[in-house]
Amino acid sequence: MNSMYQQLMQLPLFQGVNADKISELVEKLPFHFLKFRNGEQIMAAGDPCSHMRFVVSGKVRLETSFTHVRVTLVQTLCSPHVLAPDFLFGRDTSSPFTATADGPCGILQLRKSDYIQMVNSDKVFLFNILNRLSMGSQGITTSLLSMSQGSAAERLAIIVEVLTTQSSTNVLLRYRQKDLATLLGTQRVTLIATLNRLREQGIVEYTSNELRILDLRTLRNYVKRHQQSTEQS
Amino acid sequence: MNSMYQQLMQLPLFQGVNADKISELVEKLPFHFLKFRNGEQIMAAGDPCSHMRFVVSGKVRLETSFTHVRVTLVQTLCSPHVLAPDFLFGRDTSSPFTATADGPCGILQLRKSDYIQMVNSDKVFLFNILNRLSMGSQGITTSLLSMSQGSAAERLAIIVEVLTTQSSTNVLLRYRQKDLATLLGTQRVTLIATLNRLREQGIVEYTSNELRILDLRTLRNYVKRHQQSTEQS
């Protein structure tokens, strides 16, 4: 149990809250602890996000598929992590991904209404969730405004930024090469040139149907980096 | 004063709150009411967003400029509206736009810490802000996942979706044509073909240095519409 509290304490949503307070909350609120076996599905794409779900042990693999092109982004979230906190409120609360246990894994979950009660119990929870939700908008706005080439690489970076988190691991795209070229709005020959350049920079490695992201941080900041390194035009 | 409360009541952030409660809050919390003359600057791009700012009378013109390409998106927010609520919390709280009074206009503003107190005073405010902040992430995720052509038109739609609100009016882009082509990652001849197609559909009209969006709703939903109208591949 103690290690579960320690896991929670490391989450941005619990930042600034001490172990005693967390233990008090876990006693008081109807948290459910669910155990999943390797390969078991935790939620399917399209499922309603009705609970705040914290990964407190093990790893979860997420698969996010595009609707019209055969491209799927796969990523792993290691504990501690939170699953899709930005799909719990708002207008479209259906999960954008399928989540599967990657090895044995433990999820602590709390119904939306109980999460609201938790947020109401302490301003620090309120700040944490407002910060977390705002960061998504800010990141994508800054990336778009920093675009300088409108290149396939910049578009790939923006897609990856929106669909992953900073602490995602094992991020890869599975695709039909034709479909990845379509998605990035480019010809196949330009796509290959782009991927080769990213490979030379140590950011990705790829085959004919899979792109593995080796340096997620650099790719997610690919567009913003230009902002720092180039003079304003 | 009454009409100011009525304006606030129409805002999504005050949804479900009655006039008495709003009047009580405006008495209790240190709201400031600021009047701006036509053309006066309300905030500059890069200014820290330290206050929740509600446009309660008149209109505000926002100008959002790209950093590396000479493209600026201009839009008008009519009262009631809220200025950049997703830049008040999170990591990058500097305004992405310059806001200027478009005719005489009134702003009711509340410091971030006082806004937090307001949100804490009633769960309905909490739901409203969590809904508002989540909708941004959800919209851009759905748009990206619905892309089917990776075309310049889809990219334009995504940029407009991120940088405007559903109720923005007079949305236009000012550019050097070369720079708009760069931003959308396309050749000038393809850009013109794209703009002509959008013009034929009644979505935009354009000149050599200005694109006026006539049907914002359709353009913002341009990518998502495909999701509804096309079979899943």
Verbal overview:
The structure is a homodimer of 233-residue chains. Helices cover 42% and strands 25% of the residues of chain A. The model of chain A has no long low-confidence stretch (mean pLDDT 93). With 233 residues, the first copy, chain A, is of the alpha+beta class. Chain A starts with a helix and ends with a helix. Chain A has nine helices and eleven strands. In chain A, helix 3 (112-121) packs across helix 4 and helix 4 (123-146) packs across helix 9. In chain A, a hairpin with a 3-residue loop joins strand 10 (204-206) and strand 11. Chain A has two domains: 2-133, Sandwich (Jelly Rolls), CATH 2.60.120.10; 147-229, Arc Repressor Mutant, subunit A, CATH 1.10.10.10. In chain A, the strands form two sheets. The first copy, chain A, has a seven-stranded antiparallel sheet with strand order 2-7-4-5-9-11-10. The first copy, chain A, is elongated, with a radius of gyration of 19 Å. Chains A and B meet through helix 3, helix 4, helix 5 and helix 6 of A and helix 3, helix 4, helix 5 and helix 6 of B.
Secondary-structure map:
2 copies of one chain form a homodimer.
Chain A: H1 2-9, H2 19-28, E1 32-36, E2 41-43, E3 51-57, E4 59-65, E5 71-78, E6 81-83, E7 98-101, E8 105-111, H3 112-121, H4 123-146, H5 152-163, E9 169-175, H6 177-183, H7 188-200, E10 204-206, E11 210-213, H8 216-220, H9 222-229
Antiparallel strand pairs in A: 1-8, 2-7, 3-6, 3-8, 4-5, 4-7, 5-9, 9-11, 10-11
